[in-house]
Amino acid sequence: MLENSSINPVSNQVAIVTGASRGIGAAIARRLAREGFAVAVTYASNNAAAGQVVSDIHAANGQAVAIKADVRNAADVTALFDETEATLGKTTLLVNNAGIMTLAPIADMDDASFDTMLSINLKGVFYMLREAARRLETGAKIVNISTSITRLASPTYGPYAATKAGVEILTAILAKELRGRGITVNAVAPGPTVTDLFFRGKSPDLIDKIAKLAPLERLGEPDDIANVVAMIAGRDGDWINGQTIFVNGGAA
Ligand code: NAP
Asked: Ligand 1 centre from 167 Cα, in Å?
């Protein structure tokens, strides 16, 4: 018996979660494994962290493998789908979670930071979606991780929010392009969530201020986001398609 019994069980399902070595992606991978998915825990460079997530899943009697794949590289993306299929079976769920964030006013943003965010957050998701659109079969699902900043539109988040706004429109359009295939495509847009990405470069005062943005007056936990991804991934989410779901405790 796996810990935390499932509310919407699935079986013979295989999930790819990008950026699953840390933060939100790691929580999504662990939760999906508890829901019965065999999980490809993908990462860019942190193989120790990815290995730990896989070990935790195995310790809870789940199935997982760690696969290194830089989403900026189309060949890595193709190899990721191939390796997942060879080790776990055909992909039935794709969670595009890998992402980075650099903050600066538009006037001060340097070219390299802009290009890197664009290539990981938007082009990387595009590569993954293109491969998924070619390979996924009836009943499969795609969940893209956006951000609530696409609504909050806070200063200094411009280029980051622009990459994620791109992810939201790719979500809506791919859902329509897959008409007749029985595949859903949705996005989940977290508010501030306690991960390395969130804490980097922020003072304790700023963190306190951001934590008070939500009427629930706390920061999100990675599990708050994983819960919603699991709901979409399970049978309870079958009728949700083409949507961006904001998950932020009401910080809007
Ligand atoms: P995080 O803790 O910094 O983790 C980022 C993950 O992405 C790591 O697993 C990292 O792998 C992976 N990654 C980075 N560059 C990659 C690349 N080129 N190819 C493949 N994987 C790559 O970040 P997080 O906060 O969990 O963020 C996860 C997602 O949620 C992101 O899309 C982020 O934009 C979004 N989000 C976060 C927040 C928040 O407040 N935390 C709010 C809204 C949305 P390595 O470990 O190998 O480096």
From this structure: 14
Q: What is the CATH number of the domain that holds 158?
A: 3.40.50.720
CA distances from 36 to 29, 30, 94, 206 (A): 11, 10, 15, 39
What integer pLDDT is reported at residue 47 of this predicted model? 97
Query: Could you confirm whether 157 is annotated as catalytic?
Result: no
Residue 58: CB atoms within 10 Å = 13
Kindly state if the Cβ of 92 falls inside 6 Å of ligand 1: no
Low-confidence stretches of the chain (pLDDT < 50) are 1-9
- Look at residue 232 and tell me if it is in a domain: yes
What share of the chain in percent tops pLDDT 70? 96
Q: What was the pLDDT predicted at 176? A: 98
Q: Is 23 in the pocket of ligand 1 (CB under 6 A)?
A: yes
In terms of residue numbers, what domain contains 129?
A: 14-247
Q: How close is the Cα of 98 to the center of ligand 1, in Å?
A: 4
Q: Which of 43, 127, 157, 160 is catalytic?
A: 160
Sign of CA dihedral 155, 174, 189, 145: negative
pLDDT at position 71, please?
98
Number of separate domains in the chain:
1
Structure tokens at 83: 């390796």
pLDDT of residue 12: 81
Decide if 9 is inside a domain.
no
Residue 73 lies in a domain: yes
